[in-house]
Amino acid sequence: MAVTEGVRPVAERTSAKRPNRLFKNMTAKIASIPMILTALVVFIGCTLWTIYHSFTKSRLLPAPDKWVGWDQYERLWNTRRWLVSIENLAIYGVCSLVLSLVIGFTLAALLDRKIRGEAVFRTIFLYPFALSFIVTGLVWQWILNPQFGIQQVVRNWGWEGFTFDPLNNAEIVIYGILIAGIWQGSGFIMVIMLAGLRGIDQDIWKASRVEGIPAWKTYIFIIIPMMRPIFVTALVLIAAGIIKVYDLVVAQTSGGPGIASEVPAKYVIEKMFQAQNLGQGFAASTMMLVSVLVVLIPWAYLEFGGKRRD
Fold first, then answer.
1. Rounded distance between C-alpha atoms, residue 298 and residue 302, angstroms
2. pLDDT tens per residue, range 180-220
3. pTM for the full model?
4. Distance (Å, rounded) from C-alpha 245 to C-alpha 200?
5. Most buried residue, 34, 157, 173, 251, by CB count within 10 Å?
6. Domain covering 76-309, topology
7. How far is CA 123 from the centre of its chain?
8. How many angstroms separate the Cα of 291 from the Cα of each of 144, 187, 232?
9. In whole angstroms, what is the distance from residue 232 CA to residue 130 CA?
10. Can you tell me where the transmembrane regions are (predicted)?
């Protein structure tokens, strides 16, 4: 009994000294208040405002009293231009995801071999990412121009029948835009992958060499699974860039020939600011938001759901 009474005051003093979790790191919490308010008011508030007005017949100015229900969405999905833009986004997105990851990881793996002049190659590969999409689009518009671009250069070498004019061919124009996007974005993915590779313990490579495991098997079965968080992060960044692709299309083709290279972001901009049809633009932007959520929800599940299970 005496021992229990002697221990109780010590426990009470210990709990009294333990800081309340609510007041822990108060400086950091106070500093984060402006960002929290910005997220709540600007991002969430404007998102809800946009979704609400997508159900109205807003034209030049928002008209919250002109409620039309799902009419804007029905009209959106019955518009051929929007369907073409969705098809183009799907083609561009799948190809961009796969090629950016493959090219970026391959370049990172080559640079990780401690080659001579690594800093120079790293700068060269990363340099396109420093350019704006408008500049990149204009550069590749010139490169793909049949009069003085790749086609003309190859013909000057003697292949008179060579044809390479993707930007003027409605069937393959989206692939011409894809070339410019891959050229600009692969270097950034390479840097992310290289940072992940540099975080791998070198003892793994030593053990694989001792066991006689080929380098490609080490990458596929050991290194890549260890870099899952890096791949998930790169995947989210690439997907975010795909959904909002706009500048490349405007700089290279302006949506042509015809409507062959239309994308959702261009459709939204033109409906809101040129056609003065805010309701239709809001409906299209809401569908783009849904596509973003389709990417973010699986990412959040992989990042936080897996940790909770662990």
1. 6
2. 999 999 999 999 999 999 888 888 888 888 888 888 889 99
3. 0.83
4. 33
5. 173
6. MetI-like fold (1.10.3720)
7. 22
8. 31, 25, 17
9. 23
10. 30-52, 89-111, 123-143, 172-197, 218-243, 282-302
